[in-house]
Amino acid sequence: MTHAEFEITAELVGELVRDQHPDLADRPVRLGARGWDNQLWRLGDDLAVRLPWATGSADALLRKEHAWLPTLAPHLPLPVPVPQRLGEPSARFPRPWLITTWVPGAPADQTPVTRAADAATSLATFLTALHRPAPDGAPTGRDRGGPLADRAGQFARGLTAATELGLIPDPDAVRTVWHDAVTAPPWAGPPLWLHADLHPANVLTADGTICGVIDFGDLCAGDPAYDLAAAWLLLPDDTIEHFYAAYRPAPDTATMRRARGCAMARALSGILIGDAGVHGRPGGKPTWGPPAHAALHRLVATIG
Known about the structure:
10 strands, Aminoglycoside 3'-phosphotransferase, Chain: A, domain 2
């Protein structure tokens, strides 16, 4: 099923809720957002319905979020969309779906952070709380939270594509940051809980600072460097040291090197998706480009 194969409307969402969760059927339904994997529909003032509308993997990600996030959410210092009900596939809609709490705020790719120090502290405090040892049986990332070397081919293809499009002014500098990260000592601690998808569209802002984190579909256990990379994409210049000073325990040099590589991979992806959006290509999101380019600039400046 792809975006074009199934139309999701307010009427459909209302019917699904009435069929499977009739006690919530009197709540008004309105569109909240169309994300990469899921559409988000408001259900009254304090709930939301998430329905997969694109990638086939979204079904498993929703079920994983429903299974694990409620146990983590009470320990997190920022609002997150806590799963409340699971909707099962039916004749009306052939995929699972979730009812979660609604988290107010604007996506950071559309409304960037302006209160840098406050946002750095908020992000560091959130990740300190999230990055606890995961239990046996915790999900592992599809390609997230593991050794960066496993993503070398994907990174090389992305860099080639972005360079051919004229989007990367200094490909050698990008390779230098990546090589430094790949050759850093690996994570030697226990697998920690990771959000694993902390790009600007999944972090909410209000009044210039971070006010919430959404979309835990990639929740998994692994190397915390994968999440620490988010600081490079979310925070203004000259804020990284403040972020690392607020994060506990203080990351060692190897972890910060790996985080730079993870951030470079994320920036490269954002640049390509942003360019696709500017030119109207499928899957493009024009708002992803500016924070990705800013992150690349910051990361290249660390060389030397």
